[in-house]
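To the structural biology subgroup,

Please find below the input and predicted structure for Adenine deaminase, which we are adding to the shared reference set this quarter. The sequence is reproduced verbatim from the submission form. If anyone notices a discrepancy with their own records, reply to this email rather than editing the shared folder directly, so we keep one authoritative version.
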Amino acid sequence: MQDFLRNLPKVELHLHIEGSLEPELMFALAERNGIELPYSSVEEAKAAYRFKDLQGFLNLYFQGMSVLRHEQDFYDLAMDYFKRASSEGVVHIDIHFDPQAHLQRGVSLDVVMSGLLSAKQEAEQSLDLSVGMIMAFLRDRPAEEALQVLEQAAPYWSELDAIGLDSAERDHPPSKFVTVFKRAQELGLARVAHAGEEGPASYVIEALDLLDVCRIDHGIRCLESDEAVERLYQKQTVLTVCPLSNVSLNVVDSLTHHPLPALLDKGLNVTISSDDPAYFGGGLLANHIACAQSFGWDEEAFLILNRNAIKEAFTTEPRRQELLARLDVVKY
Ligand code: HPA
Ligand code: ZN
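Predicted structure (tokenized):
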């Protein structure tokens, strides 16, 4: 099974590129940029990655990304992950990135975008990997700031596939961002949002109704509302579920109790992703292996999940057809 999962062409729709920053690279960039880290070693950093909840993780996530200052740092961050993912059989990734978290530290949008876009171009040329770009807004910051960043990103609109909504979910409902998402719609950008991770099922419904999203990131708490499940089922809105992330952030108490099988039983359009692989115990392959072990799924289940992901990936139609055709000939 592990060989099958490694060789399977896998697609991940939910990955925060800043959350792919491994401690080894964090230390290298800290040294390069003369930045002091609160850890004395890679081991000490890894030992600190035990989270009570989403906010506990976000504190270390924002601290970790403080080593990213120059275009080269963003390029190195993304290429490091793209190479690792590609070596594990990942063929497409839609990346989230958090411009506000960098702007706040005095790092310009040009620095962030040029580094990430060069890495995307390099990966698409030299690896068997396509990359989608999701500019995410921090929902615990004011909506006016998000709108301003979206306008500021005008030179890059044509490079973006979508906008997203992430960071601390509780008490920051989708309704807060209606104006930003309307503007993105006017610009012809797709919309996605985290909802139903720590927040209630009603946020899933709000994201569908008020933000007109084509994707719900996480969404697992939809199971607490028949209406949310029904709406997701009727529209077949894709859910980007991140099993190892949910266990790390205590959104579920163990993988064996994870609602993934229940979501599939309801006929929902489920996919799996790694979210923040450097912090949550592994990338997309590790998430696949963990699901195989915890749920006893057969090969067909993983073909279905990756077919779902390919159909919804932010990529060109020829690439989508190519990836679907490659799944059709996978042997097991
Ligand atoms: N949830 C919300 N915001 C995030 C996450 C997450 O899992 N990872 C990075 N930003
Ligand atoms: Zn996420």
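Summary notes: Residues 14, 16, 166, 194, 217, 275 surround zinc ion (ligand 2) (CB under 6 Å). Residues 164 and 182 are 13 Å apart (CA to CA).

Regards,
Lab coordination
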